[in-house]
Amino acid sequence: MGSPEKKVSSGFLSAMSSSFSRFGIAMGRSVNGLLGYEGVEVINPEGGKEDAEEEAQRGRWKQEERESYWKMMQNYIGSDITSMVTLPVMIFEPMTMIQKMAELMEYCHLLDQADECEDPYMRLVYASSWAISVYFAYQRTWKPFNPILGETYELVNHNDITFIAEQVCHHPPMSAGHAENKHFTYDITSKLKTKLLGNSVDVYPLGRTRVSLKRDGVVLDLVPPPTKVNNLIFGRTWIDSPGEMVMTNMTTGDKVVLYFQPCGWFGAGRYEVDGYVYNADEEPKILMTGKYNASMSYQPCDMEGEPLPDTELKEVWRVADIPADDKFGYTYFAHKINSFETAPKGFLASDSRIRPDRYALEKGDLSKAGAEKSSLEEKQRAEKRMREAKGEHFKPRWFDQSDEIAQTPWGDLEVYKYNGKYAEHRAAVNSSDSHVAEDVTSIEFNPWQYGNLGTE
Questions:
Q1: pLDDT digits (tens, 9 = 90+) for 221-255
Q2: Contact yes or no for 394/451 (Cβ under 8 A)
Q3: 235 versus 279: which is more confidently predicted?
Q4: Residue 426 has pLDDT above 50, yes or no
Q5: Contact 289, 301 (CB under 8 A)
Q6: Which of helix, strand or coil describes residue 291?
Q7: How many CA atoms lie within 13 A of 99 on its CB side?
Q8: Which residues are within 8 A (CB) of 251 and not within 5 positions of it... i.e. 6 or more apart?
Q9: Phi-psi bin for 257: left (phi > 0), alpha (psi -120 to 50), beta?
Q10: In the chain, what is the greatest distance between 2 CA atoms, to the nearest angstrom?
Q11: CA dihedral angle for residue 223, residue 229, residue 230, residue 236, rounded to 10 degrees
């Protein structure tokens, strides 16, 4: 089967996109000689006319900070830096990685529509649009906090779903998540593989995402594209996700292949997504096009990928209204993720909301956030030493490591599966008198008390 890029190189989608969008390579300017560092490239994704030196001065780093961190990061070029480098809290956002996993639930009503839909190809249109929707949030250039081993995040009061995520491994960092309502279940084992390239980093989503639609028992598998974070130290930091997203109906063999265009000259192609829904015989049935920062649309097509006569392009998803000039670029839903309004009654003391460094950063106290971050990291190291001295190992509470090894485009993955205990826990708490404390600062963040310890 040809890639969507090849499929859309002629006909309808080609007419909608410029040749820059199709084949453009992001414009780069070398700052060698200007700053005295070799191999540093500063990219302006909007294609501005500033010279390299002026562009290099942009960003959140002060000159002395850039020089210091550049010297440190040079030692890690070519390495996976997922958990190797300690970064200052000034580049963080007040959210953890397992909270960011929950952002995919913002438009989960699209999965409800997929479950209710009888057309197998439209089912993939709805489900893949849901998968694309989170990339609007992924544009944020602030770094989320790495979760502490045993840290959890719970989300309720949104589209009748119950969401639980847990940090299941520290080295390498791995998280697992489960969400469910009357229409679908969502399960993910998340693990990122990174490669530092100097002033940029490639991020490979070495994870597995599965969605089960309850009405017909359809199981969907999602493979997202890789991501590139540009201008980590010099210039304006920006994010691009060029490549293919593939969602496969494992029950029927139908699939949707969507191509995320790379950012080209003068910003051409940035955010654009094009592709097709194919049947099990790899014949195109529906074309899809749009921008992940705006909307997605679809239209029935013929065997050549051309729109069928007397059909029109219809919108399936659009980005919701967002706050103006938000400091961290949060959507209204992202703010709800940090809010206790979306926390269940009697939430766990391992919940990210009460993590002290995250909470301090949310309140704008960078000094306290930095101190709390260092304190938590030291507690985590101390807890590990104690476990190893006792010959104990940490086991997640809500997810079990299975015997299954999933193959991904970027390597093998140990799969963690939801064990059902959280539903039992939640039912017991809901029937009790426990509640969220009014003064959240009175709740001590403690991710370790919830893990299961066993002897090797």
A1: 999 999 999 988 888 889 999 999 999 999 999 99
A2: yes
A3: 279
A4: yes
A5: no
A6: strand
A7: 28
A8: 216, 217, 218, 219
A9: beta
A10: 72
A11: 130
